[in-house]
Amino acid sequence: MAAVRLPRPHRDDVRIAAGGLFGGLVLWGVGLYSRTPRDPMSLVDRGWAVLVPLAVMAGCELMRRTRPRIALFIGTAALVADLLTRGSLATVVMFTDLMYAAVLYGSAGAARRIPRITGLVTVIATVWPVAAWRKPEGLLIGAFTGLVTFTPAATGWIVRNHRDTAVAERLRAEQTALLAEIDRTQAVTAERARMARELHDMVANHLSAIAIHSTAALSLDDQDTSRDALAVIRENSVEGLAEMRRLIGILRDDSGDREPAAAPTLDGLGALVESARTNGLDVTLDAAHDDGLPAPVELAAYRIVQESLTNALKHAGKGRVTVTLAQLDGSLSVRVASPYGDRDGPRAPGSGAGLVGMRERTALLEGTFDAGPEDSPDGTIWTVRATLPVTQGDPE
User: Fold this and answer.
1) 149 in a domain, yes or no?
2) Which residue blocks in the chain are alpha helix, DSSP H?
3) Residue 87 vs residue 216, higher pLDDT
4) Which residue has the higher pLDDT, 95 or 48?
5) What's the confidence (pLDDT) of residue 99?
6) Is residue 219 in some structural domain?
7) DSSP label at 283?
8) For 296-321, what is each residue's pLDDT tens digit?
9) How confident is the model at residue 225 (pLDDT cuts 50, 70, 90)?
10) Based on the domain organization, do 278 and 162 belong to the same domain?
11) CATH number at residue 282
12) 159 and 280 co-located in one domain
């Protein structure tokens, strides 16, 4: 069988035990005892007898943290043995420390029970001598008992409560800091995603038009066609550059003095469709909705139409693109249909981020979104559908 290894005592406990033992030896060496030889409780009238409970109590001090209950039990027996000798003050002081440590370092149940037990013992030690002897001197026994047992136990209970409270507060502060860091990370991630959507939606349309018309200008050896393509390229370059400068200015300005840029609204769909026509799309717009829709709904609908027209410019075949907005049953329905298939002429490459951005915008408003090919009387078309819930304000 393997031997059970006891935990090593804490270095502070070693110092306490050594200090208590040394103090007791000094008192014994100079002949200072707690009681006189004539004390009726001193059954062993030998000076060296006080050293036995003193040594045992010092040994118990080595276990005050690692084995507090065992140390208190053995220490109590050593205190009783000390009462039968002439007594050492060092032994009594070390016992009070064991009582304090048993409450402070012991289990939660022991920490609750020990103050109650010592309190009850103190009351009995106060009442019984007075009732038996009919003398007020009996109160001294109760006072001594309370000083040696209940006072250190109560002190340990108070210190333990303060320690537990401090630990709980530290854990609460760490949890709060962790939650704050999680919130900060989520906020940064959400802001980065929002800026990515805005940047993509604002610039992708202009860059797609530039790519398509520049390819056309390089492919077709016609001066008038090249001139028209260059005009469209210049117009989209200027507009895209202005959008980029505005966005970069917002990102760089941390003074808080700049007014926030106005978000696009559904009133701007006409200009958006006209710009798409300038870029070469055959677009029709049918919008039927109430005025004063919530700003997030208007922005999401505008960006979905904008991105859908950009995708149509890059990928749609020859034919008409229809944009339809309808408000029904507390929601705004957005539908953009374009011819499905390879377009004639040059194409601009796509990254696939457009559909992701539209889906994210719809999900943020708890709406529904789908996009894909479907059959129609005019052939296969690519349809983008989004349903955006409209939150009505409370009546005044």
Assistant:
1) yes
2) 11-30, 51-61, 68-83, 89-105, 108-133, 138-145, 151-219, 223-252, 269-278, 295-315, 353-364
3) 87
4) 95
5) 94
6) no
7) E
8) 888 888 888 888 887 887 777 788 89
9) low
10) no
11) 3.30.565.10
12) no
Separation CA 276–CA 278 (nearest Å): 5
Q: What is the pLDDT of residue 339?
A: 87
* Residues in contact with 374: Cβ distance below 8 Å, sequence separation at least 6, in sequence order: 380, 381, 383
Inter-residue long-range contacts of 111-116, CB under 8 Å, 24+ positions, other chains counted: 111/156, 111/157, 111/160, 114/72, 114/153, 114/156, 115/150, 115/153, 115/154, 115/156, 115/157
Q: Whole-number mean pLDDT of the chain?
A: 80
Residue 182 lies in a domain: no
Query: Residue for token digits 């060092």?
Result: 90
What is the total count of domains within the chain? 2
Say which residue the tokens 């028209």 belong to: 228
- What is this structure's pTM? 0.51
Contact 159, 111 (CB under 8 A): no
How far lies 110's CA from each of 73, 122, 264, in Å? 12, 18, 69
258 has a pLDDT exceeding 60: no
Average pLDDT over residues 232-256: 66
CA atoms in the 13 A half-sphere facing the CB of 383: 15
Residue owning tokens 């906020």: 187
Boundaries of domain holding 156: 11-175
Which among 158, 175, 192 is the end of a domain? Answer: 175
